[in-house]
Amino acid sequence: MKYIVMLGDGMADNPIEALGGRTPLEAAKKPNIDRLARTGELGMVKTVPDGMKPGSDVANLAAMGYDPKVCYTGRSPLEAVSIGIKMEDSDVAFRCNLVTLSEEEEYENRRMVDYSSGEITTKEAAELMEAIQKAFGTDEIQFYPGISYRHCMIWHGGPVGLNLTPPHDISDKTVTSYLPENPVILDLMRRSSEILKDHPVNQARKARGLNPANSIWLWGEGTRPAVSGFEAAYGVKGSVISAVDLIKGIGLCAGMKVIEVEGATGNIDTNFKGKGEAALKTLSEGQDLVYIHVEAPDECGHHGDLEGKVRAIELIDEQIVGPLLEGLEAAGEEYSILVMPDHPTPLAIKTHVADPVPYLLYRSNGAAGDGADTYTEKTAAATGRYVDHGYELMGRLLGK
Fold it and tell me: pTM for this structure?
């Protein structure tokens, strides 16, 4: 038996007037997933425990079979692992976004124009992060480049419990009420705008009509991750496919095989087809389970991109799920597949919420459930089936 988790990040949503009162899941053409829904098990699952923020870190830990209340130490440490940073027990990692703020004279009066600086390229971002490290790097604090707008700061002996605000939660808002109270963090953010505003990379971006990365934004702090081994916990060998350092970091901490896919970007232009092909390949090479993470629906949700979010769901179905099922069936493999989001990212508010999400569990031997005509928030809720702890779904997928 082969096992697949198809995780569409932020895929769930609320009814939208522009879609005739439908959600993107209801509007998207997804014949392969809907075929699975007809004889699969549908229900709702709570991936974000009470009292925890609805981040992709917490929700993906749950979807991977880990209780976030037990193992979660912060988002950025998981990303640090993926980047290759070796953290000591006293180290605190921070996510360091390159963001676009409006250009009012006072930093406190600026607005969060773009939490991703127009999806800045990794090459451009590396130059900017080099300038930040040169200006602010010390024996105590260092900056490390990541992918696109997502980077890392390590503070040796730094503080935790700062309640820092993710920049994607305040799109289009004035930052005044969301600035960090910690004076060191705030000072680094303020001074970064002076370093970055006239940097040649940003001058070139502005000349091309692109958003400049004119400030860093620090958040998501935490200490070394406390994720245990996946194979020891579940008795199967797993692989992770994602463009996002966070998900790769969880996989690495869990001792799973992390597979790089050329052209995987974390956006709507990602290599959907390549992810499906990589999933088939790793299963054919002896792995028992593959966790396929696609960030595109979430990114579209954060940008309020209705058309993009619907299309991202369609591409997951067309270029990942369809070919993957076809390949497994042609090889004569029995399989179980779990399709789900980690959390909703409603287009109307452009950020995450902690609401339960719809899941679909299908087994090729027909042993899953009673099914529905299509996989949506509404059909999943109509079953009355509810899983109160998201981490329990992994055991259900594996038949444990």
Answer: 0.85
